[in-house]
Each structure stands twice: as structure tokens, then as C-alpha cells.
């Protein structure tokens, strides 16, 4: 069986070819977030966001770690993906209005501790109680 040296690049480009994953990358360009924050901004279930993050992590574009029971994500700092990410930002300029709204909403949700009181779903349920 012959190994395809282009396979990793093809897999990465396929991963990038989805609007939700591009929005996640744009959110993370502004800094790390908790998965609960990403889900809240995108209006998606945490499990859906996790599925998208799995592909981004598998291709090396993002990294994640746990803080207590909360999962945090950030753009990868690997030298191998940095040029690809840097080339991506100007290409996303056409969607800047939507991406700016996403970033503003993420800043408003910031939960530094990611404890049950501070994370968006808990905060939302307390506001409506």
C-alpha cells in the first residue's frame, strides 16, 4: 500500500471546509475559550461543538485541556499549522461582520473560572429563574 504524502493536507483542508469550524477558529483567534462559551456563541449543543472540535484537534489546528470538568480550547501553537492559520485570517475578511458579532458575544460571556455558576448555561438559567 502506497502512503499518500498529501493526505494530512487534504484532511486539514476538508476540516476547514465547514462554516461552523471556520467560526470556531475565528473565535479562538481572539483567545482561548471554554467549550461552553463556544457552544453558547454558536447556538449549538455542546456535543455538536465537541464533534467539530474533534476534527480541528485531529488536524492539529486546535488544542484542548481540562480545567476541572470544563474543557478549554485554543488555537494550536504548533509551528507546522501557524502558516496555514495566518493565511486563513485575510480569507475570512468577507465574513468580518458576523465574526465580529461572535467575538463580541464571546467577550460578554467570559467565564474565567468555568464553575457551574459562571458558565453561560447556568448563568442563563439563573437570569430566567
TrEMBL record:
Keywords: DNA-binding, Transcription, Transcription regulation
Signal sequence range: none
SUPFAM superfamilies: Winged helix' DNA-binding domain (SSF46785)
One Pfam family cited in the UniProt record for this chain: HTH_5
Residue ranges constituting the HTH arsR-type domain according to the UniProt record: 1-96
PANTHER family: ARSENICAL RESISTANCE OPERON REPRESSOR, TRANSCRIPTIONAL REGULATOR, ARSR FAMILY
Record protein name field: HTH arsR-type domain-containing protein
